[in-house]
Amino acid sequence: MIAEILCVGTELLLGDIVNTNAAYAARELAAIGINVYFQSVVGDNPSRLKQALSLALSRSDLVVMTGGLGPTYDDLTKETVAEAFSLPMELHQPSLNAITAYFNRTGRVMTHNNEKQAWMPKGARVFQNNYGTAPGLAVEQNGKRVVLLPGPPREMEPMFHEEVIPYLKSLSDTVLLSHVIHIFGMGESMVEDKLKSYMLSHLNPTVAPYAKEGEVQLRVTASAKDVEEAEQRIRPVVGEICDLLGDVVYGIDVGSLQNALVQKLLEKNRKIATAESCTAGLVSKRITEIAGSSQVFECGIVSYSNRIKAQVLGVSEQTLEQYTEVSEQTAREMARGVRRLSGADIGVSVTGIAGPGGGTPEKPVGLVYVCASCDGFEEVLELHLSRGRRNERENIRYLASSNALALAIRALEVL
Amino acid sequence: MIAEILCVGTELLLGDIVNTNAAYAARELAAIGINVYFQSVVGDNPSRLKQALSLALSRSDLVVMTGGLGPTYDDLTKETVAEAFSLPMELHQPSLNAITAYFNRTGRVMTHNNEKQAWMPKGARVFQNNYGTAPGLAVEQNGKRVVLLPGPPREMEPMFHEEVIPYLKSLSDTVLLSHVIHIFGMGESMVEDKLKSYMLSHLNPTVAPYAKEGEVQLRVTASAKDVEEAEQRIRPVVGEICDLLGDVVYGIDVGSLQNALVQKLLEKNRKIATAESCTAGLVSKRITEIAGSSQVFECGIVSYSNRIKAQVLGVSEQTLEQYTEVSEQTAREMARGVRRLSGADIGVSVTGIAGPGGGTPEKPVGLVYVCASCDGFEEVLELHLSRGRRNERENIRYLASSNALALAIRALEVL
After folding, report:
1. Residue ranges of B 80-109 with Cβ closer than 8 A to chain A
2. What are the b/e assignments for A255-279, b being 16+ CB within 10 Å?
3. Which domains does chain A carry?
């Protein structure tokens, strides 16, 4: 099945918002084996919308549309699709009930034009919206399918995942199943090099790498007649790859470094505390993004000045004088200090030079020390994170925080 | 001039990356008055790329393309455009020199296929790439123009801003100039309501609102024969709007709350320190995003546990017991405590319930107290930030941090 994605909205055309819907839909479709050949964006303009839809229907079997399902006169997606398929519009009573209930629940007044959102092309399959008023829908004619989804990502994404994916899967008699291997500490080209023969020789499951912000993810995807068979195909391959790559693999299907860390802390009933200089709260912010982190995160100290390093964290004046604040020794004393101060099981620290100012020939921008310290484990990493790119400061801080999280995961193995 | 944006790359079609290039180019084009009617994405596939380009040229005067300028055989954008315009390819010696110099500078080895990046359609205008190897270019024929840019945003964005915008401006004899009014603490619909007559009656300058993550920005744009005249048109309108909206305006062209805060701190030579509970480092992380913040940011304490609130920040046991950690009193003592601890001029604190767990009927998820304290100013805000949306935890934390930054800006007015 060949698909394309057509997003409707003037705010996209103006660049006021980034089109995350297209990426989300594309990723979800790829994950179930549907090929996307084109993506397009068109404004809330009837004739150009019509033109774009008719082009999409002429070259694809499935058109996934987002946006233009709102209550106002310029929301035209549904009507344009009905016209293309020569379908009359009719009131869909369950949707009207759901919209009315939504307004009652959120304590807002329903206006007359909201009723428009409950009108559907005759014969449409309706997808419920649990996070807003506009239902989604699918229509089909002569083997051509159009799926229509609301524009706001917080409505579109759950609807896509919970309702559209099962609908599309039901059209096929094979299942596609993926597991993701999360890697930190090895670059994409090195991973590819180590797994080249795997990626070329394996067609089922396939092995596809994806690099992002200093990490590499390997998606292992099998197609089979049912989930059990797909699992049986995937499991040995995931096992072999993990053996081959060793301890740069920090988890399977764990989502992110911070999630892997928090889950491990919860499992082992351990607490963590952070002492940050150049990342200035980014490590603690990432850890506490995870719901439930309050059970495992004790405290964080952002010690920009040497006074705080000494006074709150207990870094010795001598260390600061002899080695400066950007040094292995200071990182070590910061991690120990925050652990002592907080009573946490693991102390993690980051100190370095994020730039753009502050670098010297001996200690250039991008030099960062990261330490994790707990009973039975203490390690400092010296990192050189400058890549000469734009947003250097942001990149250095992000990579430094990722290294701190990854080192804490390794420390936990010992505890 | 009618434009469209055509982005080339299989990683976009697969949803592996979000198409920020399209949004960036659209925003830059809109800012100089060029209308974008379509955006499309196509993979690294010769026949579909050709098809997409010929469609774009049939309906637009200007096609902005990104991606497919790399050194490998599947990078085909330039060749496809040359074919569409029936132009031969020729070696562009200055580009070859620049590419060679780039490899020498970054200490990497230049391979033979990098030379491909220096071949251009005959007569092309070449844009230099200061952040990578692929030059950009523009070709023109019979009033149709195609601009080709490299795919990586860190290369594409500076090239667009520094070279493509001046090129496109040179095609027109009017200039467009914008100033942005930054607003925090008033919703988009309220802003629109107050300025409705402005937005409708003013055609030059135009006034356009844009809401994002709890903030509203108003873009005031004038078209004129030169910059001076445009400034003269804009200035009185910006002044009137600021008077009308009052102190919810936190700056003109300041970029963000954190930038406005850091610039004000630098101006006044004052220092700030943060004490965070539910935001857990997000406030300090945002402040220290700004280059130069190390001169004004003293320290941050992330006090998740009550023990740290008492021990490090000096919040009294009695306050914690009587009012709990999520209370006006605790927020106040946290702000005072971190100020005392650090010696900073302003202490800012955040304490609240970000969820999903931890809420009670009296203190529900979304209840947040924010305090700023300095000589002559101390204020606590009680915020109710739950909106019943997905990513509730992230939203609550972000809005809480924005409120803390905005309150610190207000405190600075007094200092």
Report:
1. 106
2. ebbbbbbbbbbeeeebbbbbbbbbb
3. 2-169 (3.40.980.10), 175-252 (3.30.70.2860), 257-414 (3.90.950.20)
Question: In Å, how far are A412, B160, B220, B232 from A409, measured between CA atoms?
Answer: 5, 41, 49, 58
Q: What is the pLDDT of residue A107?
A: 74
Mean pLDDT of chain B: 92
Name the DSSP class of B295: G
Rounded distance between C-alpha atoms, residue A301 and residue B313, angstroms? 11
Query: What ipTM did this prediction achieve?
Result: 0.80
Q: What angle do CA A123, A126, A131 make, to 5 degrees?
A: 160
Strand order across the B175-184 sheet = B206-212, B215-224, B175-184, B249-252
Q: Name the maximum alpha-carbon separation found in chain B.
A: 82
Q: Which of A16, A274, A288 sits opposite B210 (nearest CB)?
A: A16
Give contacts of B310 with chain A, Cβ < 8 Å. Answer: none
State whether the Cα torsion A255-A369-A304-B267 is positive or negative: negative
The rounded distance, in Å, linking the Cα atoms of B60 and B352 is 52
The pair of three-digit structure tokens given for residue B400, joined into one six-digit string: 């809480």
- Cβ–Cβ of A294/B304 closer than 8 Å? yes
CA A304/CA A351 separation, integer angstroms? 9
Asked if the bond preceding B361 is cis, omega within 30° of 0, the reply is no
- The answer to whether residue A109 scores a pLDDT higher than 80 is no
Tokens of A321: 């004088």
- In sequence order, what are the beta bridge partners of B212? B215
Query: Over the stretch A142-164, which tens digit does the pLDDT of each residue have?
Result: 999 999 999 999 899 999 999 99
Q: How far apart are CA B239 and CA B96, in angstroms?
A: 50
Reply yes or no on whether the pLDDT at A324 is more than 90.
yes
Give percent of chain A with pLDDT exceeding 90.
73
Residue A202 has pLDDT above 80, yes or no: no
- Partner-chain contact A281 B298, CB within 8 Å: no
Note whether A41 contacts B: Cβ–Cβ < 8 A.
yes
Tell whether B308 is within 8 A of chain A (Cβ).
yes
Which residues have C-beta within 8 Å of that of residue A19, sequence separation ≥ 6? A7, A12, A39, A41, B18, B19, B22, B23, B39
Distance, CA of A378 to CA of A328 (rounded, Å): 12
pLDDT of residue A44: 86
Low-confidence ranges of chain B (pLDDT < 50): none
* Mean of per-residue pLDDT scores for chain A: 92
**What is the Cα–Cα distance from B287 to B266, expressed in whole angstroms?**
12
CA A332/CA A337 separation, integer angstroms: 8
Interchain CB contact of A13 with B (< 8 Å)? yes
Helix (H, G, I), strand (E, B) or coil at B145: strand
The pLDDT assigned to A10 comes to 85
> Could you read off the pLDDT of A350-399 as tens digits, one per residue?
999 999 988 999 999 999 999 999 999 999 999 999 876 677 899 999 99
Give the best residue of B180, B288, B397 to mutate against chain A (max A CB count within 10 A).
B288
Q: Are A356 and A283 in contact (CB under 8 A)?
A: no
| Between residues A20 and A201, the one the model is more confident about | A20
Whether A389 and chain B come into contact, CB under 8 Å, resolves to yes
Average pLDDT over residues A40-64: 95
**Beta strand extents in B185-315 (DSSP E only):** 206-212, 215-224, 249-252, 272-276, 297-303
DSSP B57: H
- What per-residue confidence (pLDDT) applies to B299? 95
Measured between beta carbons, which residues in chain A are less than 8 angstroms from residue B288? 280-281, 302, 304
Asked whether residue A266 carries a pLDDT value surpassing 90, the answer given is: yes
Q: Tokens 């030079």 label which residue?
A: A353
